[in-house]
Amino acid sequence: MIDLFEFTQSGRCALPVGAAAPKSTRQVTIGWKHNHVRVGGGAPVVVQSMTNTATEEAIATAVQVKELALAGSELVRITVNTPAAAKEVPAIREQLDRMNIHVPLVGDFHYNGHKLLTDYPECAQALSKYRINPGNMGGGKRRDDNFAQMIDVACKYDKPVRIGVNWGSLDHELMAKMMDQNAQMAQPWEAQAVMREALVVSAISNAQRAEQLGLAGDKIILSCKVSHVQDLITVYQDLSARCDYPLHLGLTEAGMGSKGIVASTAALSVLLQQGIGDTIRISLTPEPGGDRRQEVVVAQEILQTMGLRAFTPMVVACPGCGRTSSTVFQELANDIQAYLRDQMPVWKNQYPGVETMNVAVMGCVVNGPGESRHADIGISLPGTGETPAAPVYVDGQRVVTLKGDTIAQEFQQIVLDYVQKRYAP
Q: Which residues form the signal peptide (predicted)?
């Protein structure tokens, strides 16, 4: 049987049963200083996110970039929409470097990116990648000239680009042309099918033009963002079959809370299972006052639960039932999960492989002892009416039984001791 967490030296897990091999694509390297993030070409699927601060507020933006990077975002995109924002990009980069945060920054450009990159060369150099939306660059010759100007800057500073097509800002001239051609067919497609085809054609044709303008083929990543699950799956299946550029996956405007998480997971999991996708972002609408890092956590959990990568030790916990009127196991599972995630920025360097550890926090005797034995470390808490004792299992063996009011603290210490003993270099 294949071990889902048997890693190769590249960091990609052995493929889960039923998963297709990753599609062969070119590899794009996005770097800053010593940190080089590889996208495509067999590299592990990369997690990225985007700030929602005003970029002209350099300190606030740098702080949020740091938070996202420490949470595990391997690329962070920032909006560059005004001269004031472009002016502050070098300051943001400098502030991050002072904090020893070398995550590559991606500049998100719409409408005026050609002017900002040309007028503010320090901004162009401080960014590690440019995101270009061909549908937001004007029309006709003006669109072609603006696109060429951005590609020229990318060539000048040796920067990769993501050509990101979005159905909310699809090239109107291309769409109109394709709709006219479709109307003349003996058996016309439905309008939705024409739209999907236009997304794919726009992405590939703009990538080919970028290469004609001098940008190397291993400097281009493509994306075709839509907000409906089935459309996204169909578009990326088609896009993957027709090019070998690495692909960025994401359901645009996925929504808020559980809706956004479920929709993104449904779409991306199908594609990843088919070997499609080289980098992902979960575009969640944050709750008022919510934590921006949630989209990073969701992206990591999608990849880890599918067995494609490992980021933090996983906690298995039962859902609870009439046997578990106490909330102790719920609170302990939540505390342990948060504790493990909080430790990972330090542990990932000190304890290689700790991200593959499995912890079980169970609520009664039905599945508790069995699940605990299967985990690296497990605890089976007493259910309603059961003996007030919690047996702890380490590597399948019962090692201690905890009692009293300090079970949570004692179990956390057992977890820490296990990490230090098993994963120390």
A: none
**Which stretches of 66-132 are assigned E, i.e. beta strand?**
75-79, 105-109, 129-132
Tens of pLDDT, residue by residue over 341-384, are 999 999 999 999 999 999 999 989 899 999 999 999 999 999 88
Note if the pTM is more than 0.85.
yes
- Bridge partners, 35 (sequence order): 32
Q: Which helix (H) or strand (E) holds 173?
A: helix 172-183
**pLDDT one-digit tens code per residue, 176-230:** 999 999 999 999 999 999 999 999 999 999 999 999 999 999 999 999 999 999 9
Judge whether 13 is annotated as a binding position: no
* Residue closest to 266 by CA, chosen among 328, 258, 15, 62: 258
Return left, alpha or beta for 397; rule: phi > 0 is left, psi -120 to 50 is alpha, else beta: beta
Instruction: Give the 3-state secondary structure of residue 177.
Output: helix
Question: How many residues are listed for the chain in this entry?
Answer: 425
Beta bridge partners of 397: 394
Amino acid identity, residue 185?
A: M
Mean pLDDT of 65-82: 97
Take residue 224 and report the two structure tokens written for it. 């075709």
Burial 372-409, CB ≥16 within 10 A → b, else e: bbebbbbbbbbbeebeeebbbbbeeeeeeebeeeebbe
Measured CA to CA, the distance from residue 358 to residue 371 in angstroms comes to 10
Using a 10 angstrom Cβ sphere, with 0-12 exposed, 13-18 middle and 19 or more buried, the burial of residue 93 is buried
- DSSP class of residue 129 equals E
Q: Is 318 marked within a binding site?
A: yes
Is 243 part of any known ligand binding site?
A: no
